[in-house]
Sequence to fold (112 residues):
Amino acid sequence: MPFFVMAKTVLKTIFRKPYTIKYPFGGLIERPKARGSIAIDIKECIFCGLCQRKCPTKALTVVKDRKEWAIDRLRCITCAACVESCPKKCLVMESRYSPPLVMRQEEVFKGA
Ligand code: SF4
Ligand code: SF4
Fold:
């Protein structure tokens, strides 16, 4: 019996296009509600460090003295805890994914 169940599934899916895409090639589908990547409006940031403290994966680094806000995108799990905790509402979850990375690096934003 399990063989027939499996055979039915194979026949149903064999001619169907794959659900996966060859990111970043293969025509990325944008979904408006997707959790893509975190963006910051650095002009509004007061470098309070609340987002850094709330981040469960330690993806964020905030240095108040130097007015720097940095994100390690390979650590970010797009949970949006930082977005919800920001008192200035300067963090947003964008639906676009960040470009693929080949090595770990922080993306640094500097305030004025
Ligand atoms: S919580 Fe908001 S205002 Fe505070 S450091 Fe993070 S991004 Fe800046
Ligand atoms: S979305 Fe989550 S994991 Fe990513 S930086 Fe914000 S709090 Fe950290």
User: Anything to note?
Assistant: The helical segments are 2-13, 50-54, 81-85. Residues 40, 45-51, 62, 69, 85-86, 88, 90-91 surround iron/sulfur cluster (ligand 1) (CB under 6 Å). The domain at 31-110 is CATH 3.30.70.3270 (Alpha-Beta Plaits). The CA atoms of residues 44 and 105 lie 24 Å apart.
